[in-house]
Amino acid sequence: MTVAKRWIFLGFVTTGLLAGCAGDKASGRNQGASGQSSPTTTGESVKPERARGEHVTAQDVNGDGKPDVWTYTVDVEGSDTLRKVRQELDLNWDGRVDLTRFFDESGALMREVMDLDYDGKVDATYFYEKGANTRRERDFDGDGKPDSVTYYERGVLVRKERDTNGDGRVDYWEYWEKGQVDRIGEDLDGDGTVDKWTRNPNNAASD
Predict the structure, then answer these.
(1) What DSSP state is assigned to residue 97?
(2) Which has the closest alpha carbon to 116: 6, 10, 40, 19?
(3) Helices (H), the chain
(4) Chain center to CA of 58
(5) How much is the pLDDT for 39?
(6) What secondary structure does DSSP assign to 116-150, as a single string?
(7) Over the range 164-194, which residues count as b (16 or more CB within 10 Å of their CB) and which as e?
(8) Where along the chain do its domains lie?
(9) To 5 degrees, how large is the angle CA 135–CA 141–CA 145?
(10) Burial of 39 (0-12, 13-18, 19+ CB in 10 A)
(11) What is the per-residue pLDDT for 43?
(12) CA nearest 109: which of 1, 6, 25, 16?
């Protein structure tokens, strides 16, 4: 693989993932300003422990003499073939894993975890079904629990849920239709149910 192709490969890998997190990062800053606890060292590691029986193949994608991509495979029982179970990527070439992809028994992507602040812990998790992204979770305060969850149907954004006060319960809902917010629900008393609905008067889809 030429140097140019290596850069194109990593650019393709990172563009959609990091762009998809940009809006959520802004939301996370707003949550922190409202009194969220400071980051902790808890949470899932972006680089899992290597399991027994896993084989690893390292690749130097950017040509600097150091591995950037690690692909993990396992033996398929009763066969001479290998099945890919996980792939780890160092996106900023600092020698540490920033993105890990998990694959199911058919080889399809089922989950991605990302370390966006380079502390070794998972900040964002994407879930997939049949190749389509169905859910995205963001952990803004580093406690290992999602503070924001975004849902997709057939690749289209349909709902966002947030825990805005850090108590572990969803208290803010956004419902989307045709690419824009249709209505917003807010839990004002912390009982887990919507107390206030706000509709988007400019959403033609609700007419």
Answers:
(1) -
(2) 19
(3) 3-33
(4) 23
(5) 38
(6) SSSSSB--EEEEEETTEEEEEEE-SSSSSS-SEEE
(7) bbbeeebbbbbbbbeeebbbbbebeeeeeee
(8) 53-116, 121-206
(9) 45
(10) middle
(11) 83
(12) 16
Residue 81 to residue 179: CA distance in whole angstroms? 44
Tokens in use for 94?
Answer: 């600092």
What would the DSSP string read from start to end of 104-115? -TTS-EEEEEE-
CB atoms within 10 A of CB 9: 16
- What pLDDT, in 10s, does the model give residues 160-193? 999 999 999 999 999 999 999 999 999 999 999 9
**Is residue 100 packed enough to be buried (19+ CB in 10 Å), middle (13-18) or exposed (0-12)?**
buried
Q: Is 49 left (phi over 0), alpha (psi -120 to 50) or beta?
A: beta
Taking the C-alpha atoms of residue 27 and residue 36, their distance in angstroms, rounded to an integer, is 12
